[in-house]
Amino acid sequence: MKLLKVKAKWMEGAHTGELIRQGVRYAKEQGVDGLKLFGMDRDLAEALMDEAKKLGLRTAVHIAVDETTARDWAELGVTSIEHFYGVADAALDGIQNFPPEHNADNEIHRFGRAGELYIQPNLNREKLSAVLDLMVKNKVFWSPTLSIYAAIRDLIRAQNQPWFKDYLHPTLEQYFLPDLQRHGSYFLGWTNTQEVRWRKNYQVWMDALKEFDLKGGLITVGDDAGFIHSIYGYGQVHEMELLEEAGFHPLEVIKMATVNGAKLIGLEDRLGRVRQGFIADLLVVNGNPVENLRLLNPFGTDVLTYDGKAINNYSPLIPGDPKIKVERGGGIEWTIKDGIPYHVPTLMKEVKVMVDEARAAREKKK
To answer: Residue 139 contacts by C-beta under 8 Å, 6 or more apart in sequence?
Structure first.
């Protein structure tokens, strides 16, 4: 599937509805299947969505700091809403209670205060439910990307993830260092108070996701890795873990990552299920992820074993029994893509070599 972000060259200077429409038509001519949208005013969004629908293009929106909220985009029939922006904003009685010096272009300000969106004193829970109802009615998918903001609520943990030792490429490691010139690298003087607010923000956000699901809304799994101490291959699994924290059964989470994802991109007739005639995209896992989603982590996880065999930690055990051990287990053994098998441990070794070589090259330059 070919996706075009609506911040590309063809959109520069598109300040009228007609110019927007021309850009959407150009995207269709280039073979684009969908548009990734960023913040824009309501009148421009109306023109874009109208033209996209006429041309059969799917649309995903990252609601930004502007006049449109999730209510606007749901009314206009966007295919999916990414992250959490714009949802709580549409449920406020008034506006956010941010200080006068707040500058949304300053990422310390932006992300510091974003953790207060769902805990604003004037958040109207009835309005929030109404926004969710509208999203469900208009069949808007929600890809929350809970994992990309997880570092904000526990920075020390995020900076010391064990797989960084072998798999964090020095280029990305450098990018994660605090620097306001880089998106998502805003941890300068980050405070415990900010983390606490973000944790409370997550509680309301997760409750909204659960309500959305119970109303019939479709949630998908995405991670937005590459920023904010989240790296590829790990952020996606962490997203699934956080969805379980939000109240979903692991089987529901797996469905979100497979069936719902296929529906989102309009490929549910060939992806998302293990079924004859479907594309053979499969994961072969060492263990049962329904018992522990962490088994999907490429790094593996601690597994309780007895006499060399993995067992459930509710198994009857006698303290001091030498056959009881904790070993590294889990992980994906094989990834089968389009019917072609890839041995994941071999791929992981190759990635580690790449990282080691890049680190060695960096040291030579010092």
So the answer is: 218
Q: Do the Cβ atoms of 58 and 82 come closer than 8 Å?
A: no
Sign of CA dihedral 256, 35, 81, 154: positive
Task: Give the phi and the psi of residue 123 in degrees, each rounded to 5.
Answer: -70, 120
DSSP run (H or E) holding 193: helix 192-214
Q: Report the residue count for the chain.
A: 366
Amino acid at 17: G
| 152: its two tokens | 């904000």
Judged against a pLDDT cut of 80, whether residue 217 lies above it is answered with yes
Cβ neighbours for 227, distance < 8 A, ≥ 6 positions apart = 148, 183, 184, 185
Cβ contacts of 106 within 8 Å, gap of 6 or more: 180
Dig out the tokens for 353 from the structure: 């070599």
User: In this predicted model, which residue has the larger pLDDT, 15 or 306?
Assistant: 306
Whether the predicted pLDDT of 39 surpasses 90: no
Q: What pTM was estimated for this model as a whole?
A: 0.93
Take residue 216 and report the two structure tokens written for it: 């019939």
Going through 286-323 in order, the beta strands assigned E by DSSP cover: 301-306, 309-310
Contact, 70 vs 86, CB < 8 A? yes
Asked whether the predicted pLDDT for residue 141 surpasses 90, the reply is yes
- Residue 12 predicted with pLDDT over 80: no
Confidence of residue 151 (pLDDT cuts 50, 70, 90): very high
Domain boundaries, the chain: 62-264, 282-365
CA distance 164 to 233: 12
**C-alpha span between 269 and 4 (Å, rounded):** 23
Which bin fits 312, alpha (ψ -120 to 50), beta or left (φ > 0)?
Answer: beta
Rounded to 5°, the CA angle 162-341-267 comes to 95
SS3 of 284, please?
A: strand
Kindly give, in sequence order, each residue whose CB lies less than 8 Å from that of residue 171, ignoring residues fewer than 6 positions away: 358
| Confidence category of residue 345, pLDDT binned at 50, 70, 90 | very high
pLDDT at 67: 87
Q: What percent of the chain has pLDDT over 70?
A: 96
